[in-house]
Amino acid sequence: xxxxxxxxxxxxxxxxxxxxxxxxxxxxxxxxxxxxxxxxxxxxxxxxxxxxxxxxxxxxxxxxxxxxxxxxxxxxxxxxxxxxxxxxxxxxxxxxxxxxxxxxxxxxxxxxxxxxxxxxxxxxxxxxxxxxxxxxxxxxxxxxxxxxxxxxxxxxxxxxxxxxxxxxxxxxxxxxxxxxxxxxxxxxxxxxxxxxxxxxxxxxxxxxxxxxxxxxxxxxxxxxxxxxxxxxxxxxxxxxxxxxxxxxxxxxxxxxxxxxxxxxxxxxxxxxxxxxxxxxxxxxxxx
Amino acid sequence: xxxxxxxxxxxxxxxxxxxxxxxxxxxxxxxxxxxxxxxxxxxxxxxxxxxxxxxxxxxxxxxxxxxxxxxxxxxxxxxxxxxxxxxxxxxxxxxxxxxxxxxxxxxxxxxxxxxxxxxxxxxxxxxxxxxxxxxxxxxxxxxxxxxxxxxxxx
Lengths: 287, 154
What we know:
The complex is a heterodimer of chains A (about 290) and B (about 150).
Chain A: H1 2-15, E1 34-35, E2 39-40, E3 44-46, E4 55-57, H2 65-72, H3 80-90, H4 101-105, H5 108-111, E5 121-123, E6 128-130, H6 132-143, H7 154-165, H8 181-193, H9 203-207, E7 214-215, E8 218-219, E9 230-232, E10 237-239, H10 241-250, H11 262-274, E11 285-286
Chain B: H1 8-17, H2 48-56, H3 88-91, H4 94-102, H5 105-108, H6 138-148
Helix pairs in contact in B: 2-6, 4-6
């Protein structure tokens, strides 16, 4: 390959010539996120030890001026409607036990504060990490005698959004010393660098190697998870993390794993670690 | 863009074997030697006009996803993941471009993000409808190579 490298280096000069078509700005926008002029959000932070990048940057920086502004104003952020809906669900009695989430957990702004920043968490009984969606289902089954939500049910997304929102502005931080979390992190890392599909691409190819560049009309970010569930303007709806994972995998022309499967849970553990130190932004606004 | 630029290799191939009896080389059988694939994959010359469409077609080459190309300035949103392809024919020969198209990993190295367009060297869990297929057909590759050969600046 040495010959190729030399040939390539020689060509670097040629690539630097002027653009014929559209010219892109590229890179993360130089801006600060302050929600409602009062809550400062950490959108750039030094990467944790062992992280392949020097700086962890929120997907917020890669969106347009208009999209960034929407997230900075909670009255305009369309995701806030889902937070409100989530609060309604929190207080609604469901299931044979005749309880609501509030019956046991009281005021979510106290009982759920900071929780969303530290998920997925190890669950000893299940012998695997649980994310917020799975923890909700666990409480619905075990504590409410209610049916678990199906993946991406509207109420699942709203309630998850509401719970994560209670950690708005708090730094993402996983405890990898719990149970077998480290082994799941290892497995997730493997998935992150594994090439899938006919297009033969891994998460890292797009989000690690080319963040800051446009791929067609999309400005590639680092693919961080701190804003999930996110409000996507393109779909006019909340998008869950596992839905996003599956979409990115499908785009490589690969079959995608089931939501909450071991593979995607491992990926969630690993990718959440990659976002260490960024503030929770739920509900973030994305294109 | 000049449609008339049918590169000499195609003509040579036709002179050798004749188009009518030409056989398409299967993806597993294509040999990349010294970053080159010397002969047409189909034995036929490529059509640069068709190649221009294949290049832009999102379901086929989708090359604009990663490459800017001034010749297609009428199309919106040129990506910037790969180098601009303006003048690419001044930098590479048709034989080299064919190798890049067939399996870019054998030219740029395993780490490249650019997909191989006529290869079975693919990722895991290929979606059912794409299994056993290549992104482009052999003739698509020839057409795109013919098109790329028209992108000259010098």
